[in-house]
Amino acid sequence: MSSKSFSEKHEPGAVLSPLIRHQIENHLQNGELWCASAFKIAKALDVSADQVGKTADLMNVRLARCQLGIFGFGPRKKIVQPVDSPIEGLEDAIRAALIEQRLPCRAAWDIARKFKVAKMTVSGVCETIGIKIRPCQLGAF
Asked: Which residues of 49-75 are buried (b: 16+ CB within 10 A; e: fewer)?
């Protein structure tokens, strides 16, 4: 657990789901909930990813190991590295999906699926061209 109170991001009196809480407790790795595990929980319980993220916040559980490489990787924080766009049209697809000059996490995942590339390839291209990925589907950023 963290000394930072993630629950402060949410309205006072927010209620967490006992069912989601139980699943989070079962998926913790060294007190953290990995991004991939959060999405497994969401799918298994048929709830949105942001519900899992909010419950983790209310439990004061740190989200880690972002599948885009943006956060949760120990002292380095992020592991995504700039890369040149290896696939024709990838940068154009990223730019076309921008909302207020940022690429939503969901759009990054969709682009990765469409181009059949790793999610970190999309975030790496964003690093190269100076585009921030926000908001996170889990509500981490």
From this structure: bbbbbbbbbbbebbbbbbbbbbbbeee
- What is the C-alpha radius of gyration for the chain, rounded to an integer number of angstroms? 16
The answer, yes or no, to whether residue 5 has pLDDT greater than 60, is yes
Tokens standing for residue 45: 């319980």
| CA 63 centroid distance within chain | 8
Is-contact 125 117, C-beta < 8 A?
no
- Torsion on CA atoms 73, 74, 76, 82, rounded to nearest 10: -10
Q: What are the pLDDT digits (tens) for 12-59?
A: 888 889 999 999 999 999 999 999 999 999 999 999 999 999 999 999
Distance CA 9, CA 57 (A): 8
Contact 16, 55 (CB under 8 A): yes
What is the spatial distance between Cα 129 and Cα 3, in angstroms, rounded to a whole number? 34
Helix (H, G, I), strand (E, B) or coil at 29: strand
Distance CA 25, CA 123 (A): 29
Rounded Cα distance, 106 and 111, in Å: 9
